[in-house]
Amino acid sequence: MFCAVQFFVDRACGGRIVGKVASYGQQLDVLMDTVLRLAEKAGLDADELVALAHKIDEEKTQYKASLKTRAAKALDDLKRDDPGGYSALVKELG
Q1: In the chain, is it the N or the C terminus that has fewer CB atoms within a 10 Å radius of its CB?
Q2: Contacts (Cβ under 8 Å, ≥6 apart) of 89
Q3: Residue pair 77/84 in contact by the 8 Å Cβ criterion
């Protein structure tokens, strides 16, 4: 099913879409997946796009690992600097 998409120049509307519907990254993921599927069906060369998708996936993986490290450090800092706040947070998280 295809639908007509109207692109707005209005920043407020764009901000609402990104905030409520899908981030730019999510929108690009959908588009990239669609283009890759279409290219595969049509037998078209999409090596550059495939390589880009792999690089993006690697960055996401590294970011998630980094996020975990930063969260662990933040928890250690909280435990050291505010033991009561740390205990409350641990209780809250269950």
Answers
A1: N
A2: 75, 78
A3: no
Sequence-distant (6+) residues with CB within 8 A of 22 are 30
Distance CA 5, CA 89 (A): 44
Q: How far apart are CA 28 and CA 54, in angstroms?
A: 14
The model carries a pTM of 0.60
Question: Over the stretch 45-87, which tens digit does the pLDDT of each residue have?
Answer: 999 999 999 999 999 999 999 999 999 999 999 999 999 999 9
Contact (Cβ atoms closer than 8 angstroms) between residue 60 and residue 73:
no
CA angle 1, 32, 38 (to 5 degrees): 55
